[in-house]
Amino acid sequence: MRLIVPLQGVVQGRGGLFVGSLIPCCLFYFLQLYLKRRRSPPPPPDSSDSTTAELPRTSSRSSLFTRGNSSIGRVRVSSRAAPLAKPPDSAYYIGLERVKTDPYDRVSNRDGIIQLGLAESTLCFDLLQRWMSDNLMDSLMMQSDADGGFDVSSIAMYQPFEGLLEVRVAFADFMSRIMGGNVSFDPSNMVITAGGTPAVEVLAFCLADHGNAFLIPSPYYPGFDRDIKFRTGIELIPVHCRSADNFTVTVSALEQALNQARKRGSKVSGILFSNPSNPVGNILSRETLHAILSFAQEKNIHVISDEIFAGSVYGEGKEFVSMAEVAASAAAASSGEFDKSRVHIIYGLSKDLSLPGFRTGVIYSFHEDVISAAKKLMRFSSMPVPVQRILISLLSDTRFIDEYMAAHRQRIRDKHFLFVEGLKQLGIPCAESGGGLYCWVDMSSLLTSYSEKGELELFEKLLSVAKINATPGTACYCIEPGWFRCCFTALADEDIPVIMERIKLLAESSTS
Amino acid sequence: MVALTAAKQDQNLLSRMAAGDGHGENSAYFDGWKAYEENPFHPIDRPDGVIQMGLAENQLCGDLMRKWILEHPEASICTAEGVNHFSDIAIFQDYHGLPEFRQAVAKFMEKTRNNKVKFDPDRIVMSGGATGAHETVAFCLANPGDGFLVPTPYYPGFDRDLRWRTGVNLVPVTCHSSNGFKITVEALEAAYENARVSNIPVKGLLITNPSNPLGTTLDRDCLKSLVKFTNDKRIHLIADEIYAATTFGESEFISVAEVIEEVPDCNRDLIHIVYSLSKDMGLPGLRVGIVYSYNDRVVQIARKMSSFGLVSSQTQHLIAKMLSDDDFVDEFIRKSKLRLAARHAELTTGLDGLGIGWLKAGAGLFIWMDLRNLLKTATFDSEMELWRVIVHKVKLNVSPGGSCHCNEPGWFRVCFANMDHKTMETALERIRVFTSQLEEESLKLTKPMAAPPMVAKKKMCWQSSLRLSFKDTRRFDEGFFSPRSPVPQSPLVRAQI
Known about the structure:
heterodimer; A: alpha/beta; seven-stranded mixed sheet; three-stranded antiparallel sheet; 17 helices; 43% helix; globular; B: alpha/beta; 42% helix; 11% strand; disordered N terminus
């Protein structure tokens, strides 16, 4: 009303009532338009999925004058869910989707797209399969009832959501074994989850509020964008690492990123990193880990170490050291001054034991309250009981585990050698790596322009011409163009020359 | 390294969500669980332990399940017969789920709805149990601060599952015992208005059908009116049908999937079903939750979120095989219903004999027991007092109506499907003893120089010709609390000491 009266006053004399009413109406119209635009825009129609059952859209103008948001138009989903309905824009996911349309098969589809974008290993399935068929029915049925027969309630009924004590004990022993044997894990500091994905999300929910941020050395695993940002509202701030340092994070880079974040008004709650790192595959030294811890202690923030590739270390002379070990020794050395309850570890069996389908994850934390909260959150993502029973058997068979891990490491090493050598023959170098199921390849010599645009063009050419899905560095927030992650542990030896041939042809066609 | 005091370090280090009470486990109602965990009943080792009647688990058909698993080793992938599938299954982590798993679940959902409706396997999205399914649906449909209408009484877990990480509010739709706790349009409108006045944008209505904790099923007209209500308001209708196959007797379960075919111009983009195998198949340990939505976008989004709670591929494979075995499934459902009916009858006959009322219902793994007449006063404090007596003295963990947001004190949910016949007998015996003790107390107090104790002990109350129904004790209650009464305390408080 305050706006209308002076306006009416202004236009009085010439059709005053009409214009005096029209102007506020126009202002109201533009206000509605502005507010409507500020709300999340409706997602574009999806080409990849089946048609949505949309209501016919009426003229947008008429919708502006209706009250509330429950009028005509499409049925709304929540504003945090709406972006998920859009087709993926990250090359990581685009590549994975494209492979599904035309997957390579060395027998039936030799011209298909070869998958180098998914970090999974099939190298030791023969060993696992044999163990399963020899042992499994026993382990699944290992609990007997009063009559000595199989007690079905032992796999079918509700059990504590954070995992049976036996499975946590089994994981604690296993993790200690594969992480060098100098660190011990306490089962009561552990929570078992349905995969590494919920493990990361749950930790994020526990350690930071909506709007807070984690520092994350880049290049980093693209899946973290989904795991951390989707539902928690926590931001990820990349801390760029350089090829000159072999992409190892430095404290000065962390310091700089933190200061910049603070200037922007962002509250940084922690540092998240993978070790062995993904996508580069380098293993952080004890000194680097110690430096990260000191930094975190000084700034009073959390440290989350994703160690999901800990058992996949193949580099000669490379030693994997868990953050748990460094934290424990730092606390002991400082007589309790260093607070190790800021340290949290993520683990799972998807990579080291090639069981991604089983959904096995671990949150390990020195902070009692985090474990207490995480336990309660496990109701949303707990590991099914039959799988727990299987794992108790599997992980406790230390003789098999030792045999398996030795073979796993050796076979990755052999495959890595073949792959990297093949690339070297083509004049394509790789970063130095000692862990993981992939290598970090420098394809900058194949770029038409040394830029993100050039890299994405190369990515598209690799997909459509060379028929290879490799994850471009842009998707991993790498600041230097031309780097690609190539996963090689699902390849047979005979696939490698095929890949090299295709890359050679692509290189030749782009230089000609 | 800079040393910081422990207090200062802790202050800012945990998120609000983790440090808060959203998990609900600090509520007084957890005392029952704690009492059970500290002293769980076992017929031989702990005959005086607390009997768990607060957990809705279906253990009545474990023998059928066991037999099938032993006879079908190929379903387990981890046996000589099944291991040729091992590598494909172990590596499979596509959030679409195994096609055969979705097809088998769709078929099972059809069977449990008497094949009156078809389910599309491509609309089936996995989640970490029904718990995960509810949370996923809340994330998809509502923003922090939005609300869902939920008819009371409702499953206490909703307070946590729908609200904790999502920031969504629950707005109760009050239902009354006077009409059997039916959901009325008036109550829905009143709740909708309450939300509006409190500035909570309502995004959906969540119903549980068959109901938890009531065990009742919604009739066709009621379902239609709910569909119409939500359509008119353009809010989502989320139907939790987790107890679909637990109907017995003459009770008929009608799914919302059936009703939407009969409502003209129903906007299906607003209809979603939450399902699970935890209750119907008695497999809560497998963590199989399902979101079934008629809205393509919701299916797409929920599928992406399912990464946070995928069903293990080993489980998918097992369930795909199991639920494709038509003979087994048909027999399982048939026998499950018969056994539920029998166990239900055992409990309710026993309660009838003691004059304890219960809401007439024919589904679910529990009954809604009426102990209003045993309350000192018609208040929730009184209900808590009675509940504590039941947990600590009678040693039965039951769920008080207050925890289910019932508007009227005195109701209790009592689960019966997680125990064998002997345990049920023991539970009934304890109730018998409790009620006869109450009777004795009330007799003693009204006639202080009364007949010798023998008279009270000799006959059980249902045998006595002076049969004491619990309605009658109210007369004695009134005497207690009159200013003239020499005895200031009711027998319930005495029993507690």
